[in-house]
Amino acid sequence: MVEEMASRILNGEQRAIGKAISLIEDRKPEHRDLMSRLYPHAGKGQIVGITGSPGAGKSSLVNGLVKEWRNQGRSVAIIAVDPTSPFSGGALLGDRIRMRDLEEDDHIFIRSMGTRGSLGGLSEACQDVVRLMDAAGFDLVVVETVGVGQSELDIMKTADTVALVLYPSGGDLIQAFKAGIMEIADLFVINKADLPGVEQLKGELQDLLHITSEGRKWEPPILQTISTEKKGMAAVVTGIRDHYDYLVSTGKRLERRLSQKELEVMRRLHERFTEEVRPIVEKALEMNASDPYERLLEIDPYGLAEVIFCQWRKGNTEERGEG
Ligand SMILES: Nc1nc2c(ncn2[C@@H]2O[C@H](COP(=O)(O)OP(=O)(O)OP(=O)(O)O)[C@@H](O)[C@H]2O)c(=O)[nH]1
Ligand SMILES: [Mg+2]
Questions:
Q1: Quick one: CA torsion of 50, 56, 60, 65, rounded to 10 degrees?
Q2: Keyword DNA repair on this protein (predicted)?
């Protein structure tokens, strides 16, 4: 079943892609086999992260960029990551409405992803979906996230090219600086350039860039757009292309991917291990659930973690017949 699904995905069949995404989002065990099969086929597309504070105009920008890319005959997959933020509810609906006119085209794929349950794994799932789209043959895989938390930052770090969307009087520049987004941004887009304060924002940005860009070979361009009027789109598309050419010609694209490998293996292991021990943890706490709250609070978490770890290790050695 997974084998057939993989070959249909490699053929670019949208229905198979949709099904696979659900498999990935639910973290079903089969998704690992699927991803292993797809992995050798990924790595041809350009992964573009678009980040910025809520309402900066990321979706409007992506909308405009997609039209430009399609005019150049390039296919685009868009993943709108919706963190459990208080802003996302309405915005996501807005995205759907605005992007509906794009959905008739076979060379465009749009999907929103959110945190399912509270156990996280969003960045792992997102990375898998990106890889899936890449393997399916999309020339560009665009990930839109609100630049707030660690998992968004993790997602951005797996992109080839990161564009930070700012807007005048957004007051989000310092926040982005603090969150570490400034350092990983390859392009700066000042959107809503029809509003006053563009020059001031540009000045502040240039000052901050002096601090963060030391030793960088790529000089991040600062571009201006009015996304709602589709103004400035061509320059952003060119900037994204230029950055890709820079990565390829300097060997940095491979370098980046290699340095991410260890991190990714560690994250996959962490996810796998957590999955494995969770039932043991739940059981251990359940046994104590009949105790009054005070007793539950007395449980020493360090000791309990140690007991569970040893129990898990013992179980494994017995399984291998070494016990
Ligand atoms: N004046 C002006 N408004 C814009 C521009 N671009 C986007 N907007 C408006 O800004 C609002 C937010 O735009 P979105 O594209 O949804 O912004 P977003 O960053 O995707 O928002 P979230 O996904 O909620 O974080 C909408 O009302 C847009 O119409 C622009 O260039 N100029
Ligand atoms: Mg949006």
A1: -40
A2: no
As to burial, measured by CB atoms within 10 angstroms (0-12 exposed, 13-18 middle, 19+ buried), residue 306 is exposed
How many CA atoms within 13 Å lie on the side-chain side of 115?
A: 17
Atom of ligand 1 nearest to the CA of 61: 15
Our count of domains for the chain comes to 2
Q: What CATH number corresponds to the domain at position 209?
A: 3.40.50.300
Same domain, yes or no, for 307 and 211? Answer: no
Q: The domain containing residue 137 runs over which residues? A: 43-250
Note the pLDDT tens digit of each residue in 40-89.
999 999 999 999 888 899 999 999 999 999 999 999 999 988 755 433 43
Digit-coded pLDDT (tens) for 229-248: 999 999 999 999 999 999 99
Ligand 2 center–CA 228 separation, angstroms: 13
> Is the same domain home to 125 and 48?
yes
Residue 21 lies in a domain: no
Pocket test for ligand 1, best of 62, 166, 228 (most atoms within 8 A of CB): 228
148 has pLDDT over 90? no
* Residue 30 belongs to some domain of the structure: no
Q: Is the CB of 148 under 6 A from ligand 1?
A: no
How do residues 234-286 score in pLDDT, each as one tens digit? 999 999 999 999 999 999 998 888 888 888 898 889 888 888 888 888 887 77
Residue 95 sits in the same domain as residue 168: yes
What was the pLDDT predicted at 94? 44
User: Which residue do the tokens 């994204």 mark?
Assistant: 240
Query: Do 210 and 303 belong to one domain?
Result: no
Ligand 1 neighbour 55 (Cβ under 6 A): yes
| Closest approach atom of ligand 1 to CA 225 | 31
Q: State residue 116's pLDDT score.
A: 54
Q: Which of 118, 201, 196, 151 is nearest to 49 (CA)?
A: 151
